[in-house]
Amino acid sequence: MTSDFLLLQKIRNGNNHAGNQFVEKYYSFIYQYCFLHIHNQECAEDMVQETFVRFFGALMSGAEIGKAKSYLYSIAGNIIKNYYKKKKEILLDQLPDIEKDNLSEIEIRIDVERALDLLPEEIKETAILFFFQGLKQKEISDLLHIKLSLVKYRVSKAKELLSKQLEEGRD
């Protein structure tokens, strides 16, 4: 992205406003990505902060960034993996923070998140990136360093498994 390239150059040159613009541009994407993995608002916020700290550290040390969005997802993914390595026990019964108090929307969201948690890890990762983060399959392929055909398979498998799990949940 040209605009990202220009923002990153400004950041490297010490422009704090450009850094704030960059964070504002990607904060919600990275937050949602982290939250869908861990279902804890405070922890997700900490992970997002750590993601940007690492990103800016790499940027200022001269690392070749490439696509900024992919680089951010890669950092966040590593932070999530490290979180689960440190925390052996995953609490599945934590409820997400939901601003709306519509009970049916809460139930649907809980059902979707539980179904998502039941997916095999590699399919879950692809499903989050595709369905919830809105990344294109080619972007997912580049980010995860896998073939496009494998991404397509995982997306279709995720659709199949999620619909099956959500149907079973309604019975």
Structure description:
- Keywords: DNA-binding, Sigma factor, Transcription, Transcription regulation.
- Belongs to the sigma-70 factor family. ECF subfamily.
- It comes from Fusicatenibacter faecihominis.
- Residues 22-88 form the RNA polymerase sigma-70 region domain.
- This protein is an all-alpha fold and 171 residues long.
- It has eight helices and no strands.
- The protein has helices spanning 2-12, 16-38, 41-60, 68-86, 103-117, 121-132, 137-144, 148-170.
- Helix 3 crosses helix 4, helix 4 (68-86) packs across helix 7 and helix 6 (121-132) packs across helix 8.
- Mean pLDDT is 83; it is low at 88-101.
Main features:
single chain, 171 residues, mainly alpha, 8 helices, globular
